[in-house]
């Protein structure tokens, strides 16, 4: 029941694939969110209200499988500026203030850098006025054709029910 107003990715191959698989989205943009701002997006989509923002920063800075150039935790931890891209995501959340946001990533985000980024994301989202719930889900149980776990960080406006992954 949602209408996608725009889809944004920095990777040209991802944008091409998205357009091929979901051709009815009017605004599929190849942009770098470190320079493309919420104000820029507002110009593209117009004054329409944004009810949800769904996405997330690149997973490489949080992945548990990183081994070649160092790791994302512990003694071999390497600096990775992609870990800070969650701030750009939250800047869009702050600007549009949707009723709900869903940030998706790998489960390794919980422990990367000793959990520093995981805690910061939730804390910063709460400062923006959201109730925040983190849940690790099995993607295939939600219709995704992948047998992987995904880490969700879900923010809901205070007048909405909070997401729960508990089975009732």
Number of strands: 6
**In percent, how helical is the residue content?**
10-25%
Largest sheet: 4 strands, mixed
Average pLDDT value?
Answer: 85
Distance between the termini: 24 Å
Overall shape: globular
Structural class: alpha/beta
Report the total helices. 4
Q: Mind telling me the C-alpha Rg?
A: 16 Å
- Tell me what portion of residues adopts beta-strand conformation: 15-25%
> What is the H/E string?
EHEHEHEHEE
The strand order across the widest sheet is 3-4-6-5
What does this structure look like?
The chain is built from 4 helices and 6 strands; from the N terminus they run βαβαβαβαββ. The protein is an alpha/beta fold and 168 residues long. A 4-stranded mixed β-sheet has the order 3-4-6-5, covered by helices on one side. Strands 1-2 form a two-stranded parallel sheet. The model has no long low-confidence stretch (mean pLDDT 85).
How would you briefly describe this protein structure?
The chain is α/β, with parallel strands linked by helices and 168 residues long. Helices cover 24% and strands 20% of the residues. It is globular, with a radius of gyration of 16 Å.
